[in-house]
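Workshop exercise sheet. Pairs work together: one partner reads the sequence aloud, the other fills in the structure field after running the prediction. Swap roles for the next sheet.
Pair: D.N. / O.F.
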Amino acid sequence: MVKSNIPEIRFPGFSGDWKKRRLAEVAHYRNGGSFENEVVNKGKYELITLKSVDINGNLVPSKKFIDSEVSTLAKDTLVMILSEQAPGLLGKTSVIPFNNYYVLNQRVASLTPKEESDSNFLTKAINRNGKYFSSRGAGTKVQNISKPNVENFEFFIPELKEQIKIGSFLKMVDNIIYLHQQELNTLKQTKQGFLQKMFPKEGESFPEVRFDGFSGEWSRVTLDKVIQKQIKGKAQLGKFSDGEVEYLDANRLNGGAPFYSNGIQDVSADNIIILWDGSKAGTVYKGFCGVLGSTLKAYSINEKNNSDFIYQQLVHNQEKIYKHYRTPNIPHVVKDFTDVFLIYITSLEEQQKIGDFLKQLDDTIALHQRELDILKETKKAFLQKMFV
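Structure field:
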């Protein structure tokens, strides 16, 4: 029989039961002050506000500063969100990284670890128990949590040396995740930069950046001029049995689990898919094979043009499609979208060069995203098995 006060995974050299403690027994609680009337754009001290902690427990810039000489937060102090500004943030904590810079604003609390408590362990122990804090929120428009509810939070805790070992390990995992996230963000920003420079700006006929060996003006045509065939989705999930052909709907295209049906495949990976109805109507996809759901349309591109090139251009204009080519209220893509939406085209050779380059960048981004997702799932497993 597994004891409930011993974690499933432990570092070598540690044994014995963990002890249940109230948060008030292991950390000193303090409320923040009111500094809103003193806020400046640039200042000596940064305010810790309700926007200073994200859903993952990272400390993020509040962009609010003060110059007043007031008490600052000490390194390794925890800060906790007391008013929920977004789902999941109530009770979320982060750790102050250094001395003499951060000042605690109202509706945020500080938790200073006592002698036998480690800040990195505490923040993970608190953040993995978000249900406790969300269930004790009070208020109509905004959920707030009280000091007694914070201090009465109970959890299991080991001796200090084991806390430090666990906290340091999970902090290292967080740092690796952060670096991977930064790399992914940089790749996405790099791609956005290429999209802006590799297609002509509105009203122009030459891109800012070109591969060697290409010159001459690009021309503008309506989207229908490059389409060979339109495929209108008709499939409905409830009418299928299990099979081998993937059913494609908005949920699947946005990362949902696949369902393999007995439908007949009508879309290949080279087709461009557009979500035609719903809140995200106008969203463009590519790279899927299967049977097309009823809210989607797909397009095969004629042999004079490159499908990756056309797809990337539509992605580049995604916000434009959302703003100008959808109906109001319940969004639908306008019926004559392909007849009126203008795109740029160049020689097939240049299209292929651009399409291949941007697809390779997309593949690299997708690989980094998968690696990041695996790291996050690994961290989640550690949190489940390394705590009681």
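Discussion prompt: The chain has a mean pLDDT of 96. What would you look at next?
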